[in-house]
Write a structure and sequence with these properties.
mainly alpha; single chain; two-stranded antiparallel ribbon; globular; 434 Repressor (Amino-terminal Domain); about 60% helix; 6 helices; about 80 residues
């Protein structure tokens, strides 16, 4: 899974600590989330999406969706 959390967070000028505070998690959780090393609960994914004025689908991409976005998969 790939995330666009860092990209969207930067768009709003938020630090990892700022976002963590908004969604009531530790900063380390945001670090792991951005690196794709942590799969969030549906609740956390929703809270992050709301905080970043986005949707879960925009922020979290599965490997097969990454391929589709790159145009190399003809599914």
């Amino acid at each position: 899974m790939r995330t666009r959390v860092k990209e969207f967070r930067a768009k709003f000028g938020l630090t990892q600590a700022d976002l963590a505070h908004r969604v009531d998690v530790r900063r380390e959780t945001i670090v792991y989330l951005e690196k794709g090393k942590y799969v969030p609960s549906l609740r956390l994914a929703h809270d992050v999406a709301v905080a970043l004025e986005s949707s879960i689908d925009e922020l979290f991409l599965w490997d097969d969706e990454e391929t589709d976005l790159e145009g190399t998969d003809n599914k």
